[in-house]
RNA sequence: GUUUCUCCCAGUC
C-alpha cells in the first residue's frame, strides 16, 4: 500500500484534501489495506476539511481493524477532532492515551487556545510540563496564535517577547503571528524589530513572512516600505498582490490600487 | 519512497 500512502500524503502536503480523501476511498475499492502510515494523512485531511462525519467513519474503521497502538495515528485522531470542533471527543481520546508526546499535548492545547478557553489551555500547559513532556516552539506558537485569534494582540506580542527571553527558537510561524498582531494595533516599532529578526534568521523571503511584512507596513501607513518589500519579493502570489492592493485602498490611494490591479491581471494572476 | 501538533499571509464595510 506504499504507493497509495505516497499519493495521499502528497495530496495532503499540497492542500488537496478532497483528492486525498477520494484516493483513500479508491484504495478501499481496490482492496488495499490502509496501514498506520495511511491514517494520519487521511485524518489530517478530514480535520482540514472539518469533515467530522468522515473522520468518525475513519475512526470506526481503525477501531474495527484492531490496528495496534500507534502514537502517530492517535495524535492524528485527537487533532482531527480538535479541528472539527469536537473538543469533548478529542479530550476523551487524549485522556485515554497510554503514551503522549509533545505533539499530543500541542494538539489538545490548540483545541482550547483557539477558542479562548485559557483556563483549560494553561492547565494542560502546566500538566504537560509536570508529566515531563518537552515544550517546543509549536507549543508557544499555539498559545500566541490563540491570543491572535481571540483578538488579544497585546497578549500575543507579550508571549513572543517572553519566548525571546526564554530563548525559545522563533520560527516563521512565530514571526507571522507577531507581525499580524503588530498590524492590527499599528505597532510599527515592534514590527520593525520583528522585521530585523526575520532578516537575521533568513526568514524575510519566506512567502508568509514577506506577505505579513507587507501588510504590517501597509497597515502602519508606511506604504513606501510596503511597496519596496512587494517589489523585492521573490515570488508574488495572489495573497502578495492582495496585501499590497488592500494596503493602498485602506489609505484611499485608489489610483495606485487600480494600477496595481491592472499589473496583477497583466501578470496572469487570477483575482479572487 | 509515505505519517501526526503551530504555520493564517490579504479580504470579510
Care to describe what's here?
It is built from 16 helices and no strands. The chain is mostly helical and 272 residues long. It binds one RNA strand of 13 nucleotides through helix 1, helix 3, helix 5, helix 7 and helix 9.
Mean pLDDT: 93
Give the end-to-end Cα distance, rounded to a whole number of Å. 38 Å
Helical residue percent? over 70%
Find the count of extended strands (DSSP E, 2+ residues).
0
Please summarize the sheet with the most strands. none
Can you give me a brief rundown of this structure?
The protein has 272 residues and is mostly helical. The protein has helices at residues 2-13, 17-29, 38-48, 52-65, 71-83, 87-96, 102-113, 118-130, 137-149, 153-165, 172-185, 188-200, 207-219, 223-231, 238-250, 254-266. It is globular.
What does the secondary structure layout of this molecule look like, with pairings?
Blueprint: H1 2-13, H2 17-29, H3 38-48, H4 52-65, H5 71-83, H6 87-96, H7 102-113, H8 118-130, H9 137-149, H10 153-165, H11 172-185, H12 188-200, H13 207-219, H14 223-231, H15 238-250, H16 254-266
This protein binds one RNA strand of 13 nucleotides through helix 1, helix 3, helix 5, helix 7 and helix 9.
Amino acid at each position: 500500500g506504499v504507493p497509495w500512502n505516497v499519493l495521499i500524503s502528497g495530496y495532503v502536503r499540497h492542500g488537496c484534501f478532497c483528492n486525498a480523501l477520494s484516493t483513500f476511498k479508491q484504495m478501499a475499492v481496490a482492496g488495499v489495506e490502509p496501514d498506520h502510515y495511511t491514517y494520519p494523512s487521511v485524518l489530517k485531511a478530514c480535520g482540514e476539511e472539518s469533515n467530522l462525519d468522515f473522520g468518525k467513519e475513519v475512526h470506526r474503521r481503525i477501531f474495527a481493524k484492531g490496528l495496534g497502538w500507534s502514537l502517530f495515528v492517535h495524535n492524528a485522531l485527537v487533532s482531527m477532532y480538535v479541528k472539527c470542533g469536537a473538543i469533548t471527543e478529542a479530550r476523551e481520546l487524549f485522556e485515554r492515551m497510554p503514551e503522549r508526546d509533545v505533539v499530543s499535548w500541542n494538539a489538545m492545547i490548540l483545541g482550547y487556545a483557539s477558542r479562548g478557553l485559557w483556563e483549560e489551555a494553561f492547565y494542560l500547559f502546566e500538566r504537560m510540563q509536570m508529566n515531563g513532556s518537552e515544550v517546543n516552539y509549536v507549543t508557544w506558537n499555539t498559545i500566541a496564535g490563540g491570543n491572535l485569534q481571540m483578538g488579544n494582540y497585546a497578549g500575543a506580542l507579550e508571549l513572543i517577547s517572553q519566548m525571546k527571553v526564554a530563548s525559545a527558537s522563533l520560527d516563521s510561524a512565530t514571526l507571522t503571528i507577531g507581525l499580524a498582531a503588530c498590524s492590527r494595533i499599528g505597532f510599527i516599532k515592534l514590527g520593525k524589530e520583528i522585521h530585523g529578526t526575520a532578516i537575521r534568521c533568513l526568514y524575510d523571503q519566506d512567502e508568509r513572512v514577506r506577505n505579513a511584512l507587507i501588510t504590517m507596513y501597509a497597515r502602519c501607513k508606511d506604504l513606501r516600505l510596503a511597496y519596496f518589500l512587494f517589489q523585492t519579493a521573490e515570488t508574488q502570489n495572489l495573497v502578495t498582490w492582495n496585501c499590497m492592493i488592500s494596503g493602498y485602498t485602506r489609505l484611499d490611494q485608489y489610483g495606485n490600487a487600480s494600477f496595481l490591479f491592472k499589473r496583477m491581471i497583466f501578470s496572469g494572476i487570477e483575482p479572487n
